[in-house]
Amino acid sequence: MLGYILRRILAVIPVMLLVAVFVFLLLRLTPGDPAAIIAGDMATPAQLDRIREAMGLNQPLHIQFVTWVGQLLRGDLGVSLISNTPVATMVADRIGPTFSIAILTIIMSVAMAVPMGVLAAWKHRSAADYAVMTFSVLGFSVPVFVIGYIFILIFSLQLGWFPVQGYTPIGSGFGAFLSNAFLPALTLSTIYIALIARMTRANMLEVLGEDYIRTARAKGAPERTVLFRHALKNAAVPILTVIGSGFALLIGGVVVTETVFNIPGIGRLTVDAILARDYPVIQAMILLTSFLYVLVNLLIDLSYSFFDPRIRY
Amino acid sequence: MFNRLSLASKTATLVTAALLGTTMLSGAAFAQSTVKAVMHSGLRVLDPVITTAHITRNHAYMIYDVLIAQDSEFQPQPQMADWTVSDDMLTYTFTLRNGLTFHDGAPVTAADVVASLNRWGQKDAGGQVIMDRTASLEATDDTTVTWTLTEPFVPMLDVLSKQSALPPFIMPARIAETSADEAITEYVGSGPFRFVEAEFQPGLMVVYEKFDDYVPRDEPADWMAGGKVVNVDRVEWVNMPDIQTAVNALSGGEVDYVEAMQVDLIPLLEGDPNVVVETREPTGMQTMTRMNFLHPPFDNQQVRQAALKAIQQEPVLAAMVGNPEYYSVCGAILGCGTPLASDAQAETLTQGGGADEARALLEEAGYDGTPVVLMAPTDMVALATQPVVVSQMLREAGFEVELQPMDWQTLVTRRASQAAPAEGGWNIFITNWMVPEISNPISNPMLNGRGSDAWFGWPEDETIEALKEDFIDAETPEAQVEVAQQIQTHALDNGLLIPLGQYTLPQARRATITAMIQSPVPVFWGMQKAE
């Protein structure tokens, strides 16, 4: 297993290199000019050119690329062209909110979706099953910003239970964190609950039809044991895949939710950087996101063997 | 061991560890009187000389002071300094008032002022004109700056006191000596608020604290002039990219002030007794069209004139703003409500009925149906609708219009291209200006007729340059108004711009915020907050 992990980690290097080249070229080929953002509307073409020169944007592409890769190899993500702030500081400031809300979202989603999916499969074609499926369709279909605004209207403005917006780090107290993070996590959860519940239901239905389930029931095993010990554990691998990719998507930035709830996460950082053509920030964010995707996928693969002992690396 | 743990407890352990492992930001300690404001944009660039971005200028007014400042009559008034002018109008002597201190404790000296003015003079259009006529700019002693010109420049004080775009903010000499093309990295001013760098998050939040050693002038505050008396301890600018979120936060009492309200969201706040929606100041913004003089069809004056005749402001403003309470038709290129405003030549713009004339002009000009590339930014609410309406009006007058949607960043890059429209250039785009920043012919970018050195569109126009010289030489306000009228007539005749009308900027505040100063720049002195 250790060898497998090492091989997978080593495989990250060419992937990241490819991503780096691709991102660098894509950005330089996209129209846009950070100097124009900095200079503002009144700048003349001559002034813009002087700013470009000072920012090093007039240098040949290959020189810019080599400079950037050199920085990366020294562990330096560079400095924002727009705000002059080190990119590492910007990412460090922003990753906490995204990470903590992603974890909370996954907890809430799994806590609600798995029982819902199990129930729907267990009570197949019953009212409970139809209710779960209706919720799933709605959760999938209603745009996340609409759900967010509805939750804000009900829970913040009408009932006053939660703040409308903002983020409080866990370091300031779990209660304060939860107060700010609950609504965005709940909003994000709707789509993941829908997804995970459907996936759980489908896999449970398949597993519940297997011979060993019938055998377990014939042996007089309690229904709870049949459902959660025999069926759910065997249905877990595809569910885990969905949860893992869902988590990676959340980390990749959920810009709409971050915008609606004014959360200073990496989704907004990335979009702001793209709109301003802040090349070092965009490059760092895409590299980081790619790395997290690879890492999450590795963790998911490793977790398969935990739920299914037949899988060995 | 791991296998024996229950799934729930394993999950709980992992989750707790993960949550606690996330980055923890230290919570800000709230001072007694904190105003939380949602500004029109996130602050990212901190150097007010390198950029003309309004948010950076607003930030600069918080932490820097200016030598002289504009009042609501557009008149220069003393701020950091009083001044005298020699009889021959060649020597301006500025005397710094007592008690001026930078945030690092050092006194403000004339040498700081000279260094700051020199840096500003390299970047600002008006400043460059002054510098071209400068014989010497020197610190005569610690508190006196003597500025000697080679020839009289009547609008000298108007340019020095302007509130946009690039007011001459005063910094310590060591900072002001930074190249004008590189951003400063130290943010020390002598203004009424101190920048809290430790809490600055680019694009997210910026924090200011009252500068206790600031000595305000005795006069009452009036626009950017007068005493800057600070009545709150701390101001936080929070950036919310979604205006609906800002409105919700204001309703919920989580923020105190929203600088730029979207007109169609105002009804959401109108019934709330805890919120006040108002117009910050009456002049507001001008929206306008710029054509490219380098390429067909707008390299032909008759075709530019046809475009002007084809357009009527009212439909553009109705689509853009909606509620007539917040917009007005205005043919003045220098903005209605300003001392030099004139609406000569603008009848069809303000009243319509120019389509037939436009068609006749196009025929006379021999317009061959060359498509007009109109760049339409789709990601800027304030600029998204005008291109659609303008393109339709141009089509109705006989133009072939190719409306090209793009993001604002693409537009600002592409508008700098002098290539033909078919090769990545352009013919026409629309942008907005704050009225005070286009109210003076010297600093209005559209009135620069120096060809490739001019603003995007690059008109080669000797007449406008000559008229601006006349304006500079006009010795009385009446004479200035007279030249300004000639500038208006010529600018519209030559199609230097097509004004599309004026709109005001509604702001919203909690009722607990009072005594806000009416000003084109949102300022936080004077303001009071009831607990």
TrEMBL record, chain A:
CDD domains: TM_PBP2 (cd06261)
Keywords assigned by UniProt, alphabetized: Cell membrane, Membrane, Transmembrane, Transmembrane helix, Transport
Localization, UniProt: Cell membrane
Membrane topology designation: Multi-pass membrane protein
Membrane found in the keyword field: yes
Protein name from the UniProt record: ABC transporter permease
GO cellular component: plasma membrane
Family the entry assigns: Belongs to the binding-protein-dependent transport system permease family.
Transmembrane annotation, as ranges: 9-27, 99-122, 134-157, 177-197, 237-261, 281-307
Organism of this sequence: Paracoccus gahaiensis
UniProtKB/TrEMBL annotation, chain B:
Pfam families: SBP_bac_5 (PF00496)
InterPro entries: SBP_5 (IPR039424), SBP_5_dom (IPR000914)
GO MF assignments: peptide transmembrane transporter activity
Species for this entry: Paracoccus gahaiensis
Predominant place of localization: periplasm
Signal peptide positions (record): 1-31
Keyword Signal: yes
Record-given protein name: ABC transporter substrate-binding protein
Location within or outside the cell: Periplasm
Family, per entry: Belongs to the bacterial solute-binding protein 5 family.
Keywords: Signal
Domain Solute-binding protein family: 76-436
Lineage: Bacteria, Pseudomonadati, Pseudomonadota, Alphaproteobacteria, Rhodobacterales
Gene Ontology terms describing biological process: peptide transport
